[in-house]
Structures are given as structure tokens and as C-alpha cells.
Predict the 3D structure of the following.
Amino acid sequence: MSAGPKYEYLWMDGEEVKKPVKCSAPEYVDFLMTWVQSKLDNEQIFPSRTDVPFPKNFQAVIKTVFKRLFRIYAHIYYSHFNKIVSLGEEAHLNTCFKHFYYFVTEFNLIEKKEMEPLAELINNLTAKDQ
């Protein structure tokens, strides 16, 4: 999966896929959503009881989740934005992404270098808010 000519994202979950593998965008999204669901369902990572603490690696897991979700946005903007525009849905995509961006920024969930593929878009979407 890619986000333009400079960014290619390989899949690796460290569990079933231990070495990075090249895959199509639909495969990457499927791998990611399956992986995220396994994390959400894991009581060791997301305890459902209030008397059970979150694990020490919780923040690392969450950062990985959001970094990989960002990659989906980057791919959509680079590879499918013209279709989104033709459907008249760009305002919806931009709004969703802007909320995503502000959330990950507020809680330091993604390093700035990871967001480089959409740096220009981020600047355009947030310019009025600064």
C-alpha cells in the first residue's frame, strides 16, 4: 500500500507476520482492521473491569494503532481523493481526518515525521485554527 511515490507501507504485526510484507491497500486495510480488533478484544490490553489496570505497554500499542490508521488516510488522499471529490464527499473526509489529526496531536499519538505524507493537507486544514 502506498501514499504517493515516496511512501510505501508494508504490513507486519509481529505475531503472525513477523517480517514486513508488501501488500495491496485492500489487504493492508483488512490486516489492520483484523489486528486492531484483536487488540480491542484482548483483555490484557483493554481490560473491561475498572479494577484491572491498563498494561505498561498500553501507550505503545495505541500509538501503533493510530500510526497505522493514519496510513489509511494517507493512502485514501493520495490514491482515491479524485473519486471522493467526484462523489462530493471531500468535506466529510476532511472533517473526519481533521478530528483524527487533532486527537492524535493532542495526545501525542503519532510522531510528526509519520505524518509527513499529508503535511501540506494538514497545514491547509488547520491554518484557520491557529
In short: Residues 58-86 form the longest helix (29 residues). The chain has a mean pLDDT of 95. DSSP finds four helices and no strands in the chain.
